[in-house]
Amino acid sequence: MVEAVAAESTSDNEVESESELIQMKLQLDAAFHEINHLKKELSIMALKEESFKENDKKVCFYTGLPSWDLLNKLFLYARPHLSKENLLHPFSSY
Hints:
The chain has helices at residues 2-45, 49-52, 56-63, 68-78, 90-93. The chain is an all-alpha fold. It folds into two domains: 1-45; 47-94, no CATH class.
């Protein structure tokens, strides 16, 4: 009888452990999903050259210029005159 109670107790502990493991996996999956979502949001909000290409609304909002093409032409014109000592990427220093 003592053996049956001990076996039942062990079985209950295994069920609890498995339940906790499943819960942790669900939390981990949710965390990965949130991380990926935040990475996408960050890339959209980033002020890098790639984020301005093909996004004339963003170009207009941040620069007042109507298009990426015009911003890029202006950048190419100004690039030779940017400080060589600047540690930023040339587009970022512009």
